[in-house]
Amino acid sequence: MTAPSMDVELWVRRFHPGPAWGPRLVCFPHAGGSAVAFHPTSKALSPVAEVLSLQYPGRQDRLGEPCLDNIAELADAIVAVLAPKLDRPLVFLGHSMGAVLAFEVAVRLERRGVVLRRLFASGRRAPSRVRDESIHLGPDAELVAEVQRLSGTDESLLTDPAVLSIVLPALRADYRAVETYRHDGGARLRCPVTVLTGDRDPRVSLDEASDWADHTTADCDVKVFAGGHFFLNDHPAQINDLLAAELSRPAG
């Protein structure tokens, strides 16, 4: 199998036209997720920003490409494909694995002199907080059970053997990427961070969410929502309002 394509149009999806001015919101999906997860976000926020959603290799229309199972490799690739999109202020939104990936991309962009307006880190503990996790090493049934526990995937997809055979490779690769990720301990962002977390998320405690403050020299605030790991699906209007307020804020 060849290396993943670096075609910008394969990596970066725009579902709705946005204004020809102002910031860009770049959305990073969760493990096993795809760009379409942020289609509702794009629809809601396209009046105030150009909303872009990332499509990682190895899923949906990129099924024929090899998955990347390393956060650093994914981040390096995303920095490369975002190069034509750096001419406007950037806001990042990442959920779960996407939050870690968004952070690592932001770190790399800062080394190039590009500082985000804000990072929204959703459903993920701070990069420095490590848990001993090895679901990616277990059998398929264990991986599927974990996804069911987090309630982030249509149950019908997880019980159809034909569909499972298609989605499991990307899911396992993503779990390997995020479970083996280790923050290098040095990099801190210069942009503000807003942390979004669910009050019943088995993957993130409030302390683990609050420690995102250690990863920026700017402000860090934590917004707690009722719900589990995919709490954002239960509060779309409230979360879109938060994003819109940042995207509509005058520059400077």
Automatic annotation (TrEMBL):
Gene Ontology biological-process entries: lipid biosynthetic process
Span of the signal peptide: none
An annotated Gene Ontology molecular function: hydrolase activity
SMART domains referenced in this protein's UniProt entry, alphabetically: PKS_TE
Keyword annotations of the record: Hydrolase
SUPFAM superfamilies, alphabetized: alpha/beta-Hydrolases
Domain Thioesterase TesA-like intervals: 26-247
Sequence similarity: Belongs to the thioesterase family.
PANTHER family: S-ACYL FATTY ACID SYNTHASE THIOESTERASE, MEDIUM CHAIN, THIOESTERASE
Protein name: Thioesterase
Protein species of origin: Polymorphospora rubra
Taxonomic lineage: Bacteria, Bacillati, Actinomycetota, Actinomycetes, Micromonosporales
